[in-house]
Amino acid sequence: MGRTLQNTMINLGLQNASCFLDSMATLGLAAYGYGIRYEYGIFNQKIKNGWQVEEADDWLRHGNPWEKARPEYMLPVHFYGRVEESKEGAKWVDTQVVLAMPYDTPIPGYMNNTVNTMRLWSARAPNDFNLMDFNVGDYIQAVLDRNLAENISRVLYPNDNFFEGKELRLKQEYFVVAATLQDIMRRFKNSKKGSSGPVSFDSFPEKVAIQLNDTHPAMAIPELMRVFVDIEKLDWDTAWAITKRTFAYTNHTVLPEALERWPIGLLETLLPRHLQIIYRINQGHLDEISALFPEDMDRIRRMSLIEEDGGKRVNMAHLCIVGSHAVNGVAEIHSNIIKTDVFRDFSELEPEKFQNKTNGITPRRWLLLCNPGLAELIAEAIGEEYVKDLSQLQKLNELVDDDTFIRDVSKVKQDNKEKFSQYLEKEYMVEINPSSMFDVHVKRIHEYKRQLLNCLHIVTMYNRIRKNPKAPFVPRTVIIGGKAAPGYHMAKMIIKLITAVGEVVNKDPVVGSKLKVIYLENYRVSLAEKVIPATDLSEQISTAGTEASGTGNMKFMLNGALTIGTMDGANVEMAEEAGEENMFIFGMRVEDVAEMDVQGYDAMTYYQKIPELKQAIDQINSGFFCPKQPELFKDVTNMLFNHDRFKVFADYEDYITCQEKVNELYQNPREWTKMVIKNIAASGKFSSDRTITDYATEVWGVEPTDLKIPPPNEPREALDETARALREK
Questions:
Q1: Do 344 and 444 reside in the same domain of the chain?
Q2: Can you give the CATH number for the domain in which 547 is found?
Q3: Which residues fall in a compositionally biased region of kind Basic and acidic residues (predicted)?
Q4: Which of 300, 326, 356 is the last residue of a domain?
């Protein structure tokens, strides 16, 4: 039945990690989530005069009642220093020590009396930190310098899909993996207590599976090798075999600027022993490539862990692939792209290593908690078992033509819209038409997610209303939200443009209630729980081949929103499950984008041949939406014409045509709601329970269990019976 894992480690850092932790507990997997306990979160976003302003997110200022400090498990983490070689092997000496203090948060499973743990590490300076300064009389400076150590867990880097090679970031990445691996090693050794002789690590991969969530925890690979070789005194080949069987790697992006590449000089200073280990891993790897392709120097260069172009750097994705037994993308299309393009050489070498694990979301939060009206309606129709088996939503297909169910689904949506309208009117002082279509585009602000394409549609709708105010028009409330990385100039300009367009549209008496534009300030999970249940139309419009998966698209689908989107990320599988005819699909496919890259993309051609696009761009360029600063959006239009990697103009015409189909269907509430029901019924695949089951059985080698652990107040016999059943399973 597979292995019994001591722990499965998911390094936190991505939005759906919390869904995965919920599913692992619900599926009865003995799992830990590890990460850093940042004092300050990403940032609180304020919109002032249409601009994003960042404020510190001091989320711990009132304490956290759910966490428990565990000082008894505090661990040392080393930095800097040098490497001493002797006949006993390498020794990392003269290091600077930072202490990792663990804080545990319980992760309960759903109705099964299982509670897993999320352990987050906080950096603490040791008492003797910089005591040399104290010895020469500068006690005050010695105490102040403790901040240098504790800064490691001070703030989360907010850079989105852009790698920035800062020393503090590398410290954070090593800090979490070094503390985590010590924690894992302690538990593994404790499980071996009572056995005679030295601890054998032969069974380590049977007891421990470590899933690397993107490249941020990649330093775990050389760190585990250091522990095995330098501390536990295993020979290199044995240590390497165990390490590869322990790790698996999930890739989350194909954007080249997002892939981590750490400079050799920085690694040599901060983690000198790890750099030596990486070099040795690379040498063994290149020896294998050379033996297979002795004349192919180009391939050897492409597959090396060490890149030479523009300064020597370690390619962390290559390190993850070489040091893992399994590599996966997070949607079928994404996994195919990393196999056939991004990591093609590695896939050709070891095709069996590459897999797909389509992302998922937990229905406990993203339906039961945030949309109780719909959750109750579904439970009345098909029973409550769907909460732990989302595939049962397929039973709703039997009710697609049921007038009573159609009416009830429509009423739940309208109730959610009324509730959210009141929230918007209170927060933004804008009168909302709750009968209008709620057209929602909420996600991080990035060029590839193409909020600009949505903005051009808003301008086009505005111009159509102004041109013929008495013509029939399907009222819309366009809601956009998301944070821009503080250093990402274009993303901040996109926010400013959307808010400027919104200000003109919302104040125009000719437009009235036909069109409103709201920019949601400080978009976050608690706000998502309000907006997603109220959404009619979900915008998932990234350029084909750029979105790894997306999970927002799944949340909207589950909550009864219809999707307008490109064939990108998980949209492809959503269309497979629901039927492409039950989504609004538009735009270029991956192969079209690739062909355009070869032929060349000329934005001016589209601008000159599409009158409504030309009008919208001319208005933005001329300062129509910002008359006091007419040159304000020149950077945006210049980017769209001259270096738009994401080809906004190429998809504009098809997007506008598709939006007209959306309007047409929205005018037929019964047919719209029938399509909504079909989408909800098709969303079962996108449960994180399914995702984690796939990881468990196909990567970690362990089977989920549906056994319910009796509560502590039940007789001892019940606990013994459960333990017996678990052992047999």
A1: no
A2: 3.40.50.2000
A3: 714-729
A4: 356
Active site residue 244: no
Say whether 252 is catalytic.
Answer: yes
Average pLDDT over residues 219-239: 98
> Cα separation of 402 and 414, whole Å?
18
pLDDT tens by residue, 459-477: 999 999 999 999 999 999 9
Categorize the per-residue pLDDT at 727 as very low, low, confident or very high, splitting at 50, 70 and 90. low
CA 670 to chain centre: 35
pLDDT-derived band at 220 (thresholds 50, 70, 90) equals: very high
Mean pLDDT over 122-150 rounds to 75
Decide if 422 is inside a domain. no
The one catalytic residue in 252, 274, 339, 388 is 252
Q: Which helix (H) or strand (E) holds 355?
A: strand 354-356
Residues 451, 343, single domain; the answer is no
For the segment 278-333, what is each residue's pLDDT rounded down to a tens digit? 999 999 999 999 999 999 999 999 999 999 988 899 999 999 999 999 999 999 99
User: Taking a C-beta distance cutoff of 8 angstroms, is the pair 109, 23 a contact?
Assistant: no
Burial 355-389 (b: 16+ CB within 10 A, else e): bbbbbbbbbbbbbbebbebbbebbeebbeeebbbe
Which two tokens mark 7? 């722990």
Catalytic position from the list 250, 551, 673, 705: 551
Q: Are 553 and 528 in contact (CB under 8 A)?
A: no
Residues in the chain: 729
Residues 439 and 333 both lie in one domain = no
494 and 618, same structural domain? yes
Range of the domain at 252: 7-71+101-121+153-262+316-356
**350 and 462: one domain?**
no
Pair 323, 455 in one domain = no
Sign of CA dihedral 574, 575, 576, 578: positive
Look up residue 132 and give its two tokens: 């040399």
* Residue that is last in its domain, among 356, 388, 418: 356
Quote the CA–CA distance of 238 and 690 in Å, as a whole number.
Answer: 34
Token pair 């125009």 is at which residue? 508
Separation of alpha carbons 540 and 284, rounded Å = 43
Please check whether residue 294 lies inside any domain of the structure: no
Single pTM value for the model? 0.95
Phi-psi region of 310 (alpha: psi -120 to 50; beta: other; left: phi over 0): left
User: Which member of 216, 514, 555, 678 is catalytic?
Assistant: 555
User: What are phi and psi for residue 656, nearest 5 degrees?
Assistant: -65, -45
Alpha-carbon separation of residue 448 from 213, 335, 389, 487, 638 (angstroms): 21, 18, 34, 16, 16
Find out whether 464 and 506 touch, Cβ atoms under 8 Å: no
Tell me how many domains the chain contains. 2
Per residue in 153-191, pLDDT (tens digit) is: 999 987 667 788 899 999 999 999 999 999 999 999 998
Catalytic residue list contains 444: yes
Rounded to 5°, the CA angle 574-580-584 comes to 90
650 and 545 fall within a common domain: yes
Residue 221 located in a structural domain: yes
Return the pLDDT at 138.
73
Which residue in 216, 353, 444, 685 is the catalytic one? Answer: 444
Based on the fold, state whether residues 322 and 462 are members of the same structural domain. no
Residue 720 has pLDDT above 80, yes or no: no
Active site residue 555: yes
Tokens of 284: 């063994």
Active site residue 449: yes
- Active-site entry in 274, 413, 417, 443: 443
* 149, 280, 721 from 237: Cα distances, Å: 35, 11, 42
State how far the Cα of 175 lies from the Cα of 169, in Å rounded to an integer. Answer: 10
Q: How far is CA 717 from CA 26, 28, 706, 722, in A?
A: 23, 20, 19, 9
Find the angle CA(34)-CA(37)-CA(41) to the nearest 5 degrees: 120
Is 470 one of the catalytic residues? no
In a domain, residue 308? The reply is no
Instruction: Please tell me what DSSP assigns to residue 712.
Output: T
